[in-house]
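Justification of computing resources. Each target in the renewal requires a structure prediction run like the one illustrated here; the chain below, 605 residues long, is used simply to show the kind of job we budget for.
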Amino acid sequence: MGQTLVEKIISQHAAGPCKAGDVVDLRIDARIARDFGGANVVKHILTYGLEIENPKATYFTFDCNPTGSDQRYAANQQMIRLFAASRGIKVYDITEGIGTHIAIDEGLIGPGSTMVSTDSHANIVGAIGAFGQGMGDQDVAYAFSTGRVWFRVPPTKRIFLRGKRPPYLTAKDITLALVGKLGASGLLGYAAEVYGEVADEMSLSERITLASMATEMGGIIILFPPNEEVCEELSSITGKRYKGIVADQDATYAGDIDLDVTHLEPQISLPGSPANVVPISQVAGTKIHSAFVGSCTNGRYEDMAEVARILRGTSVAQDVVLKIVPSTNRIWERCLETGIIKIFKDAGALVGNAGCAGCAAGQIGQNGPGEVTVSTGNRNFPGKQGQGKVFLASPRVVAASAIRGYITSPEKMDEPIEIKHIEEPVLERKTRSAPEERQAPTRIKGRVWVVARDNIDTDMIYHNKHLAVTDIREMGKYCFGNLEGWQDFANKVKPGDIVVAGSNFGCGSSRQHAVDCFRALGVQAIIAKSFGAIYERNAINAGLPILEGNLDSLNLKEGDVISVDFLSGDVVKEATGERTKIKPFSKVQLEIYKRGGLLVRSGED
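Resulting structure tokens:
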């Protein structure tokens, strides 16, 4: 039987041929930790007395807070520097930029390689036909010490980009159209491969843009088979030679997704979710206060050059702040050499050093209450880039909007338009202290909290401004602190309670904090219709019981008591005796749960 791209890559890094659904011991070519997750990785390694399997394949990247503007980040970064120096590990420090882009541009990986990182967008490397996964700090610590992780091979869907691409249509527009078509969970649990003439003609930077938003569709990874042109482009950057990798013609796929780009107009995501995508004409004229160009989605040189082309000879609107952050130092320096930085500065833009920028609380790109931002980022969850409202768009749209002071495209900049204003409410949050650690039975009983929502992302569960916290005892008070209507959850929940949620719970970033905050509060288990892929791994590895299933038939209300059997999947509503079944623990989950966590050795508490 033929293999998909992900099956082929994983087979080459496992004990032998594998297929979708198999759980394998996966060899990792490049293991990377960032500045916020890296501190916890170091703590795990030191706490459990672990060694580094291969320092030459192990890296740290300081991309979340390259300005060192937060004392906790600065302390974490220095801890990592000292640890790395003692182990012979390479640190790409605060001057170097986004770790996933560094992995590509520095040749840390190539087509057919494998990579893990504490960055939830590690799957960006699918742009070059490599396999990357964002994972929590326990997973990455394990990879640092063994060179391997356990992994379930995902099924694969094919994405066909059809039609004739209009000259104004960017890779970001195509990507947003896909996100809008599929929604936040349209690729949940799946890998995807991209085909079609439109895909074949995409440059490396364009492929990076599309691959970078697999996470926003719930996907494991989006892979492009690297053609000769992309391999040559990659070789010109790294100085290494590469061969492409393709799926077998008789590979088995889980379905096909078609997108005809012929008549697409520029796309934009409305504030609140990347999946709230509409044609730009629906929001044209919306007044903005700031604009941002950068992130791992649109921080490449080609993005900077397009923005410079539109900004040349003009200036940013007087009441708008334009913030620009190239993704890597190499790109920053090329912009300097070609005069692009001067164009930005002459136009009145703020140019930051390379890094994650608006997606990380510690670098430029954040906005304040009531502020409306148009951004090239990949996420606009409430609170992700600050307390204002964030629209997601292409670099072309962001540049044109910054000049005019309202949402527009370069083609429509000179047309008269009615200006529209929107407001951003300011929300309060309550906190509480964390309870004692939980026990580990295989059958539990507890009061339920019914969070009847789908696509609750990790920013809603645990806001990114608290990512520098490394003491689990401090994390509980921030749980659900950014989820509308649930900001007081930490004040009301009791040890032993059970959270029941909808589909795609924990989508978004790779932060372990979004799991550990429930552990800190003593939550016994989380039951959801489905989980974000990284969140599922993080919870299992932390020993937090999570179970997948639909409890709608029990008509649960807040405060109802249920019993749950982890081994059989039986769920009973205690007041009525009504029963249903959900997915029980897998063998791997049970083993890790009984140990008390992935990094706890057998026989240890």
